[in-house]
Amino acid sequence: MTQTITIDPVTRLEGHGKITIQLNAQGEVEDAHFHVTQVRGFEKFSEGRPFYEMPALTARICGICPVSHLLASAKACEAIMSVQIPHTAAQLRRILNLAQMVQSHSLSFFHLSSPDLLLGMESDPAQRHIFGVAAVRPELGRAGIALRRFGQHIIELLGTKRIHTGWVIPGGVAEPLSSANRDEILAMLPEAYANISLALAAYKEIADQFQQEISVFANFPSNYLGLVNEDESIEFTDGALRLIGPKGDIIDDGITAQRFTEVIGEAVEPYSYTKFVYYKPLGYPEGSYRVGPLARLNIVKTMGTPKADQELAAFKQLAAGPAESSFFYHHARLVEVMYGIEKIERILADPLILDKHVRATAGVNCLNGAGQIEAPRGTLSHHYKVDEHGKITWANLVVATGHNNMAMNRGVLQAAKCYVKDGKFTEGALNRVEAVIRTFDPCLSCSTHAFGQMPLAMKLVSADGSVVDQVVR
Amino acid sequence: MSFSARCLILACGNTMREDDGVGPFLAQWAEDRWSGDSRVRVICGFQWTPEMVEDVAQAESVLFVDCATDCKPGLLRTMEVQPTAGTSRLGTHHLDAAQLLMLSRQLYGKMPRSSLLLTVGAGSLELREGFSDAVQKALPEAQRMLAEAVQRLIDTVPDQRAYPASLNE
User: Fold this and answer.
1) Contact A272, A36 (CB under 8 A)
2) Could you identify which of A199, A436, B80, B126 might form a hypothetical disulfide with A411, taking C-beta atoms 3.0 to 4.6 angstroms apart as the criterion?
3) How far out from the chain centre does Cα A248 lie?
């Protein structure tokens, strides 16, 4: 008789989901699925809206990474307008995107994952939260809060609001940067550098304690996709996509937002509302890949900033080719935070950063437009079609969690095979299976566009379909 | 980014969820009422988040302002708040007043000397702006109680700038 284990909800994620583990007659893990159980609706109800409303509309998908949707959407709108935005607007958008990356990565590392890393996977679940972290490493708790605040405050200084700013608009940004706000950001940099240095040192101290987790947390060869500049440095807001194979070989390069729609496909599985994204020339599921911090660092040759390049060099020592374990998402995230701080400082030194010309204007010049950026969790694409009046007739969003969907499912199965024994959960096994998902830092709000409460559970199901065990917390 | 205040007013709520917007409404009223008064600082958000802990830690007193769903619509209550991690599941993006105080003490080794929570009983949390009749009627009294609470906190909490830092441990 086979059995199925369900973890419901998976905790400490952005949004909620469910994991089902299928056991065979011997009580061994046979299969596992990560379910996202909410229906997606934004593409449909945006039909008929003027295209220039799309940045503000789609940003409401998520309260964590609204900036990502704002930027990808604005870029798609600019493709419809056929305009190139002013240099200063492009630079300010880069700062905004990097600030969001810093705050989002800080939330993921310090708030969501550091309880596992600092307190241990087997620690009392009642203590595995920010209060537990504050009790054992208050300096890291303060660093996490300060880094998240650093990113949020920059977003607020640029866009007047921390969440759902309307500052990014098709054609550029609504307001230029003031010298007072530039100086305020510059004044925050020393503390930000100190905090990320502290976090990197702490991570390196403890990472070796997780060798088994490293070996089974989605540790397998895969393809990787991410934006890269022409000089092979990391990019979050512009550039073009590169797809590399398991050994680091380039499969495709220079994938623009428009070509993205030609080479990237979306498959559907019956157990999840989140689609499974793949590279069409390789087919499905062989064309699946990973995105996000791990993928980006595996793809690039340089970060392009000195401190982050030092950290990248250390990261590249983890493996001869691409680092394969999703556990290393944590490490990659911290390297990217260092990069974000350095890059913000560098952009602020641009002599044109206070220029007042920050917006280009145009009407509908193309009936089809796509935009792509790197969200904290990975590549985000918006693709719209409009009529001659600029009303949306079709829209499609491909989000990071969809790109990573296959890898998350494979990762859950790999970890479950290691940790679920004799058809039963232990608290540590449960937490580790959840922790695999947390390494990807998926955003289930983005992937489903759900509204309201979205709990995620773990369920153990027998061969005859009956639920043997279930965890809801 | 943070600075100390004799009294920090920390409000939360969503103006698009009817009576949940009473926190932001009172925060805006307080902004106007104490405009230019450096003793009072007002912060308002959709939720109370861990990022607010530093502001809480640096304040000499704090008045939390929120709506409540465990009482009659329009009922006004002021109560003292003690730090606790609580037993309920901790959210990623929000904390309650007692948890903010606890985190302030754990992370920064200090917290406000006095903390009050002012709540307004919610009658409706539907997806619209404005207030239910009960909350609308309660607003003038809520403003009066808020002003009284702020004055009480300012009067009873000594100015930390006049005392050694060790007294705030």
Assistant:
1) yes
2) A436
3) 21
Q: Tell me if chain A has a CB within 8 Å of the CB of B16.
A: no
Whether A163 and B50 lie within 8 Å, measured CB to CB: no
Residues 102-131, chain A, touching B (beta carbon < 8 A): 107, 111-112, 129-131
In terms of pLDDT, which residue wins out, A323 or A444? A323
Dump pLDDT digits (tens) for A374-396.
Answer: 999 999 999 999 999 999 999 99
* Residue spans of beta strands (DSSP E) within chain B: 7-12, 40-45, 61-68, 76-80, 114-121
Widest pairwise Cα distance in chain A: 70
Residue B101, CA distances (Å) to A42, A407, B86, B114 in order: 39, 40, 11, 10
Complex ipTM: 0.82
pTM of the model: 0.90
* The predicted structure's pLDDT at residue A116: 92
Residue B143 lies in a domain: yes
Whether residue B1 lies inside any domain: the answer is: no
For residue A13, pLDDT beyond 80: no
DSSP state of A463: T
Mean pLDDT value of segment A144-163:
91
Domains in chain A: boundaries? 1-38+409-473
Domain assignment of residue B70, given as a range: 7-168
Q: In the predicted model, what is the mean pLDDT of residues A222-245?
A: 97
